[in-house]
Specification:
Length: 370
């Protein structure tokens, strides 16, 4: 079976370097927080072009902490795209806020600026989330940032999938007011357990996030907020330090695989388009996203019969998930995201995917996607 994702190449890449780190962490009993977490936060800020980073326990926690630090309270509206992982919606709903679902642009599959404008004229939300979906980002990202800044809308960038993405040759998050990351193991830069981070160039916001993630502490037994228990484990920070140190190699390899898919795809006569970012965005090789000409649900089993695992990310939009019913506002029929999820198919892609497997996937796609 050619798997959709295989984590072994990364765990094997770092295991020799991680083992002595873990031994010393166990010896020093730096199990939650500690010097490795502090070092990782410094490395993250440096790589991502932000002033500071706060590590936490997951990407979903990072979103909740960022939203809360940015002032989201129950009953407020928060705009977010209708095509994203469920956690983006979940974080907003868990804070008691009301999601305003915005359709995606068919051009880049990211939040649609025109609809964001229309929704703001109607709902006057003070917070919005732009998700850098699929390891790309919106071609209109600079305009989205300006639109939000001009209207005093706090824009939170959900970069769970976007470590290593660049805008005009610089880390995409260098221009973000506040952004969140996930280190779920299958991400481009994945940890050995759940993990996340908030990055920002606003020192006050960073300190609020840090306090919120640690029970709202101002001192060990003094609390300035009702916060959460969301700190990063020392063992995770040690592991991530070794993965982050190899981020260039991992991301370059993934980008080469996407390029190899693209090279083979064009001549294969497949009834589907291999999508990717445009404008000044450089992807991080997170996903190989195909938009088929026709509905794609039946293709998953056809690939499986050829011993290839493909996935559909995502087969349903946020508004189509049952728990979303009655819990959101929308200003359009969200038709672009609805149409896209019927036709989406994602091909195997991971650091270490053998070129012969990639060739077999394209061969199968030529037979299946017609
Ligand atoms: C866009 C997006 N946001 C948020 C998350 C949540 O991250 P985590 O699984 O680390 O909580 C993910 C993770 O899959 C994601 O893809």
């Amino acid at each position: 079976m050619i798997p959709f994702v295989d984590l072994h190449p990364v765990t094997r890449l770092v295991s020799d370097a991680v083992a002595p780190r873990w031994a010393s962490a166990l010896e020093s009993c730096e199990l939650v927080g500690g010097s490795a977490v502090t070092r990782l936060e410094g490395e993250l800020a440096r790589c991502l072009g932000a002033r500071a980073a706060v590590a936490c326990a997951s990407g979903t926690d990072a979103l909740r902490l960022a939203l809360q630090a940015a002032g989201v309270v129950p009953g407020m509206h928060v705009a977010l795209p209708n095509l994203t992982f469920w956690a983006t919606f979940e974080a907003v709903a868990q804070l008691g806020a009301i999601p305003v679902l915005i359709d995606v642009s068919p051009d880049d599959l990211q939040i649609d600026l025109d609809e964001l404008r229309r929704a703001h004229a109607r709902v006057r939300f003070r917070h919005a989330i732009a998700v850098h979906l699929y390891g790309w980002a919106s071609t209109a990202l600079s305009e989205i940032r300006t639109f939000c800044a001009d209207r005093d809308v706090c824009l939170i960038e959900d970069a769970a999938q976007a470590f290593g993405v660049e805008l005009d040759g610089r880390p995409v998050l260098a221009g973000a007011a506040i952004a969140t990351l996930s280190f779920y193991p299958a991400k481009v830069i994945g940890g050995c357990m759940d993990g996340g981070a908030v990055v920002s160039s606003d020192p006050a916001l960073v300190e609020t996030v840090r306090s919120l993630g640690n029970h709202g502490r101002s001192a060990h037994y003094a609390h300035q907020h009702v916060g959460w228990s969301s700190r990063m484990a020392g063992l995770q920070a040690h592991y991530l330090l070794e993965v982050v140190a190899r981020a260039g190699e991992i991301i370059d390899a993934r980008r080469r695989l996407v390029a190899a898919y693209r090279g083979r795809w064009s001549d294969a006569g497949i009834a589907g388009r291999l999508r990717g970012p445009s404008g000044g965005i450089t992807d991080n090789g997170y996903l190989a996203v195909v938009e088929c000409d026709r509905p794609a649900a039946g293709h998953v089993a056809a690939f499986r019969r050829r011993a290839i695992e493909v996935r559909r990310i995502y087969p349903e939009t946020i508004d189509q998930q049952p728990p979303a019913r009655g819990r959101f506002v929308a200003v359009s029929d969200l038709a672009h995201s609805h149409g896209f999820v019927e036709r989406v198919l994602d091909l195997p892609l991971y650091y270490g995917l053998p070129e012969r497997d990639l060739a077999a996937v394209v061969q199968a796609a030529a037979e299946i996607i017609r």
